[in-house]
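Notes to self after the Tuesday call (sharing in case useful).
The group wants a holo model before anyone commits to mutagenesis around the pocket. I volunteered. Ligand is zinc ion. Logging inputs and output together so the record is complete.
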Amino acid sequence: VTPDDVDSSEVFSRLPVTSRKELFEQSPRFLGVGPDQIVETVMTAGTTGKPFPFVFTRSDIDRIAFSQALSLYGAGLTVNDRVLLLVSLDRFSLDGMALYRGAGMMGVNVMRMGCGSAQSATLQRYLQFFRPTVLIAAPSVLRNVATELGRAGVDTAKSNVAKLIATSEALRSRDMELSAPAKTIETLWGARAFSMYSSTELAVTYGECGARCGAHSHPELVYTEIVDENGDPVADGEAGELVATPLGVEGVPLLRYRTGDITFKVPGTCSCGRNSCRIGPILGRVGQNLHTARQFSYRGVDIVPQQLTRALDAIGDVRDYVIIIEKDERGADTVLIHAAVPPAALEKISSAIREATGVHIQTLVSNEPTIRALRGGVTTKLPIIDKRTTPVAATAG
Ligand SMILES: [Zn+2]
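Result:
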């Protein structure tokens, strides 16, 4: 394939995909410029594997800022807004720096708080002096800050904050309804929450508009596809892996990069009037296997997901299963097993799980089609769907 062959977007689906593994193992071969052109080195987010260094040119950094500015503008921010940025600005991460530059490009007043823990007295001062109208942070940070302030007697619902831009964790479920933790942060702050998806390797963001039904892509900056296991595009509304080709990148140009994130294109057009495609919440990760599955705490016991998969794999009657780990509205880990088994095998599962973990974990008798639907329609046998994603701070440090 030569550049001349690429004369329409349909050609994309005929090009090979680029995996994270290829990028990781042969990163020098992906460089599009000489070392003198590189102005920034960050580490990729480590949610689907080992983090590795990633570089940008001056123009790439401007491009990222532009992408962030478009997303913030899409969420309805204006130059009169005051943004309190509660995202890590250091620790080699891209997000905080990109958001800061994007807000600057838009011309809003931004205050960098970062995401280290702050005393409620300090937080209270920020709220009183700066009177932020927008908070940008991971949902778990938004909840923790509000809880901390609540303990100090501050009613965050009565603050000036009108918008919450949520990074790094999904706010919605497969049916696009707000999740319980998302509803909690909206209530705590008396504000509307907007999802933002970003990827270091793509160096773009997808952001929700005022209609809040999917995160808009910025088609001048990225070509977006959702593909099945074979790399073939799936229909709008069907879940698959997000594969994207960032446009106009100098430092590390990528073709059809497999993000590992499972989502879907929201069908139809958005009521806001933008025609760009929208992606739904991240439902899981293709690379989310036993090596990356994170420990969770349930009824006071720390459990490694492998304890559950090992127990389930050992039971012959189990045809398929999925373990769903998420946070409830109080921020505690919850776990539920859906297993394709004859009802009579349920007792066997219960005792195997209790033996492996010491606690009882609820198991529902299910079937293969339901389990596939729970995986967002993905045919890969993902044993675990972890709906708690690591906040940026925790990833970096
Ligand atoms: Zn829209």
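Two things stood out.
Confidence is low (pLDDT under 50) at residues 390-397.
The chain is about 25% helix and 25% strand.
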